[in-house]
Amino acid sequence: MTETTLTTVKLSTTGMHCPSCSMLIELKLRKLEGVEEARSDYIKQETTVSFDQEKVDMVKILGTIEEAGYQATVLA
After folding, report:
1. Chain-centre distance of CA 50, in angstroms?
2. Taking the complete model, does pTM exceed 0.85, yes or no?
3. CATH number for domain 6-74, candidates 3.30.450.20, 3.30.365.10, 3.30.70.100, 3.90.1700.10
4. Long-range pairs of 31-34 with CB within 8 A, sequence gap ≥ 24
5. What SS3 state is found at 72?
6. Does the structure show a pLDDT above 60 at 51?
């Protein structure tokens, strides 16, 4: 069995107004195959995602956040 290497990225996630916004983003991201962890902070307007690049890519992650009604970009 091969060991999975996770990639963790921090995203600027704008448009969140309350804890429910953060929870919605987390729930949507965690449903994606390959996403191991998602934490969103509406106060900081940031989301941290740990994922397996062999199963999901940044285009899908960013698209999922945008489909939920928020904007996201990768922080440098």
Report:
1. 8
2. yes
3. 3.30.70.100
4. 32/56, 32/60, 32/61, 32/64
5. strand
6. yes
